[in-house]
Amino acid sequence: MITRVVMEALSPTMEEGRVVQWLKHEGDAIKTGDVLAEVETDKAIMELTARGDGVLRAIVVKDGETTEVGNLVGVIAGADEDISGVAPAARGGQGGQGGPGGWDTPLEPTAPATLTAVGGEEARRIKASPLARRMAEERGVPLTAITGSGPGGRIIKRDIESTSSALTASTAPGWGGEGWRDVPLTQLRKTIARRLTQSLAPIPHFFLTSEIDMEQAAEARAALNALGGEKISFNDIVVKVVAMALTQHPECNAWWQETHIRYFRDVHLGMAVAVEDGLITPVVQHAHAKSLRQIATESRDLAERARARRLTPAEYTGSTFSISNLGMFGIDEFTAVINPPEAGILAVGAITERPVARDGAVVGRKRMRVTMSCDHRVIDGATGARFLQTVKRMLENPLAIVW
Amino acid sequence: MAKTFDVIILGGGPGGYICAIRCAQLRLTTAVVERGKLGGVCVNIGCIPSKALLHSAWVANVVRHDAAALGITTGDVTLDFGVAMKRSRQVADQNSKGVEYLMKKHKVTVIAGTGVLQAGRKIKVGDDVYTATKAVVLATGSRVKGLPKIGLEIDKKTVISTDEALFLEQAPKSLAIVGASAVGMEFADVFNAFGSEITLIEVLPRVLPFEDADSSAALTRAYKKRGMTILTAAKVTGATVTEKGATIDVEAGGKTQTVSVEKVLVAAGRAVNVEDIGLEAAGVQLTDRGFIKVDEQLRTTADGVYAIGDVAGPPMLAHKGSREGVNAAETIAGHTPHPIRYDNVPSVTYCHPEVASIGLTEDQCKERKLDYKVGKFPFTANGRARATLETDGFVKIIRDTKYGEILGAHIVASHASELIHELLVARESEYTVEEIDLAIHAHPTLSEAVAEAALDSLGRALNI
To answer: Is residue A100 part of a domain?
Structure first.
């Protein structure tokens, strides 16, 4: 009996596997359950076991080669059995060409990838009229984000149109009799959803957290504000410090561009601002080159106009790195979602007095936790850590700003 | 007899009786108050008997004009309108009996008499007062009205309405029909087939003025070929009426002409039945145009009082009234029915060839400055139509350029009334012209012309 040995899905997310080493050789007798080879998955090195008895007649994917889940990697059969129907080129134990494409015999035909991102297999199962489907595709509105108002919840033309025009609706609907209400997505909300799912799903995020002593920053701020003029906030200080640190660590001031990474000389810092039904990220251009006072004036103006929806597109695009500050909401620490194509974002928590051991005694100190989300395709752990170390050093010694 | 019901419906026409059935299905105790015969105008003096007469007319035309070519020799053909009329009465009576049966089947109480609404959801019929605990539905319909301002008051002898035309014992020698909308066109068809000399007088610039201009043009051609006189953009400036006939002064194209006929059929204008049914006392308000004012749920300004059908506003069509009846019943029962799409109510004229349409006309698309494309397919290029000598007409589909949405569809064909529904379902379901084409159409059928028109709008009709 012929048993096809295929690359098995050894983890739920595994799409392909690399044969690290065959533990059996062509001609070896095999019993069900024998370990045939070690396979490296996306997560670990696992064992590929035999699912039939016989002789390992052919090794199709050789040591070190990679193939997709479902592809043939070897053949177990009776010693004299004709296996040409299963692995013609494997006759005589020469092995195959191996690797992806060499033995492209998936167990099940894969679905043709004819659907666009908006359509998609998921979207196919959503009840929507052909017209609504077409309009959604044209307008880039994902059907998954729309509540249908047609028979049985079917998405119809009107739903697509109301989604597109919801931004102009002025009155919020009240609660329905069922105790819930469906609010169509605003353009802003749709953009946030699209941009951020684009972010978290495909970007390999990792997070670095650091607690920073803010005593000196607080003193510096008090001293500066005592001089009069535009009041400086802690956020302004963080903006300035992050911008300066980025000029020292240009490897974190970059965009992931799929085929290449674009590093920036200048720092254009995006600051996430909460607005009535979402958030928007206005950009302090050339933040590294601006004085604290300039940053204070400019960021206040940007935030105000962001809330009034008065920003021009140029004022909220083009940032090279972003900061999200939820300190004013009493959040101690959190992780922010990267705003692609940027490679990082710094989530800034509240400044609170915390007990800290200092010179052998526990004292209360103003402390602030920051968490940096990094795109691992651009920033490696140590790279991000070095940048964050610089941020911490500068905030703990704010004279560095004028250094 | 019980005096209290969940729902009492005033009027047993196609709006009222359908509403009653739906109420009964939803387990509401229901009564219908009807002063005439169940089925209303539609069943008794409208849709149904006129379709019976139109069928007589169609057969008359086939026998006289097509039979020989079909290999059938008939000899002298004698036409007797009286016989056709009596059959149409039987058909109407059968349908009315059918409605009676449906009321019994669904245990709907039928109260004979004229109902008058009173405050507090009460209906007075004669000396009896009935109470509706949940809702009263006003479905009193509409009636013909004359045109007294131009001297054409209906005298039921020389100047008649459809109410009288349906009961004539014989076709008049000559007949002037004032109004060339659906009703006028249908009666012109009938009496032309039965030998009357027809003059159609329409005040607007074309017959079937609310249909697509292409449809109007096709019918004008077909009617003129059959020897009818059509006066459009024509104003009746005066009329002299005697027992023997009428002389009408018609001003058209800057000239005044006199039309002398045996009878005049006034086929323009209907009045809604809103008088003497207690609306004011119950707090039911009317619109500026005289219809009962209703909201999207068909609720009037009086609590627990609904209105459906002709009294609730145009289009004054039986099928629109029936759908409103269903929706009102479901709303009363606490459901949330799917809102009625008033822009997708089919309009049909059952003359020969028939005219059917949904949605916008091409002129309306132009006025609204829509970006559209037209697909058109004539029945002369359709095999089935050739085989059955029914090559008059076309299918015209107007689609949105960008998305392919069906904006309007217009069919002139021997069976346009049936053919339109494919496009109606498609439009209701928001199918685009591409879905119409994707569905394989049986060959040979008239319906193939629908698919071809869809294809033509995409620039790739196959059989032309």
So the answer is: no
